[in-house]
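Study this fold:
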Amino acid sequence: MANSTGHARFVGSAHGVVHQGCDVVQWPGEARLYHLVPPLRGYTTVVASTLPNAVHVAARGGVERGIETFLWGVRGEDLQVDFDTELPGSGWGNTLVDALAEAGYVPV
């Protein structure tokens, strides 16, 4: 886990407000917007997208289910998400707080 030196301030839900091109992103689980200080890889705003029961293929074979959180960068006034770059902290088994902490942030 990275040293938590930054702050992540909850802004609001990402449902209905974040775009990919002209389309509003349809998040399958919980999706929250955070403002980050300092920026993470150039992003001051991110979406933390959490699925409580995500499917994961285990190394030994078979399927497991568990929590999964991804951090995605967002830019512009119309909140354009960058799905091309999965940000640090993203991962299977990570809660929202885990993902932010691994990226170096504490929720405030």
